[in-house]
Amino acid sequence: MYTTRPYSSETIEFDLPKTMYSVQPVLQQTK
Fold it and tell me: The organism sits in which domain of life (predicted)?
């Protein structure tokens, strides 16, 4: 699947959940 950039796919997969959880509380506070 990610033969071109395997390391990139790994970082994205791990970064997505982190950003989602870190942004959710911030969005709730701003609202």
Answer: Eukaryota
Q: In the predicted model, is pLDDT for residue 28 greater than 60?
A: yes
CA dihedral 18, 20, 22, 28 (to 10 degrees): -170
pTM above 0.85, yes or no: no
Token look-up 């997505």 returns 16
Distances (CA, A) of 30 to 11, 23, 24, 26: 28, 11, 10, 6
Per-residue pLDDT for 22 more than 60? yes
Closest alpha carbon to 11 in 19, 23, 27, 21: 19
